[in-house]
Amino acid sequence: MTNDVLLTHFVQQEQRTQVAIGSGVLKKLEQFLPPNTSKVFVIGDSIVMSLYGDEIKSHLSIETSLLSFAPGESSKVLDTWFELNQQLEQGAVDRRAVVIGLGGGVSTDLAGFVAATSLRGLDGIFVPTSLLGMVDAAIGGKVGLNSGFGKNRIGCMWWPKAVVVDPDVLLTLPDLETSLGLAEVIKIACVDDPPLLDLLLAQPSFRPSTEVIIRAIKAKLAIVERDPFEKGERAVLNFGHTVGHAMEACSNWSIPHGDAVALGMEIEASILESISGIKWRDKDKFLRVREKAELTRILEHQPVTAWQDLLNYMASDKKSTGSKIRFSLPSCFGGGPGNWTVAVDLEVLETL
Question: Which domains does the chain have, with CATH numbers?
Fold first, then answer.
């Protein structure tokens, strides 16, 4: 794999995911299929499938079916999961079949959960076609669905055999999608790689270089490898997401994930500064990078949900308990081993 970067992520000694990153690596997709694969089911939304479905088939020499669903977060639900499972059954799925999740975060979350639950577990590969998918959603083993009780309330930990990251597909990505994906790059920079903020500021435009993508992926892989099941340090990867997920849900998914997390990080940082007494020394860089990435749309155009409505949603978040809402506690706010989250009383938050 000349000029490609091949990372091997060990979840447990016998369980690993290969992450291949490189221009044109998509053409080598078949070499990542497990031996004796019987057939392939490619799952992605209808837009991504129209762009890349036939190309994926052209790179595979075995029987391949393309299964699509309506684009958007509203498809990440049990009804879609059931329909896709029906299509697998109609396609004579067997235990040697492989599911390929093609697209952004919704596609990989949904495809991964289909693979994890069909026939009690199929092998899979993720082919992220969005920046958000490449640096976050396809990395780390979290798959699942939304429910009436909130975002990602149904799911499990399931790791694909490979994640194939071809930065060339980003060349056709609209500026908006690139901007939204940068929220997760900025997040990993804030919690684990502050010099990455300088690299983002030094770039001629907000479109990330391959170096930025590789650094973001490596940083997340390192954290996940140390804490694959989120028993401790991995919680820092939720920075901005407690508030961000509440914004998404309260807007009925009209606020995109990237925009919500970008503002969520600022709000959560203010909360952490208030309760820890530690000033965020990278706040100015964060705000400058966020502006460069054009991640201020909520402030400029979208009516922000009332704080009390957000608190009501956060109180039902899967990480919260009783009257306390739990936030990530990155090291820049005093977090460390045994102390990667902080629970804040709802009454305190109501006064902020």
Answer: 5-170 (3.40.50.1970), 174-350 (1.20.1090.10)
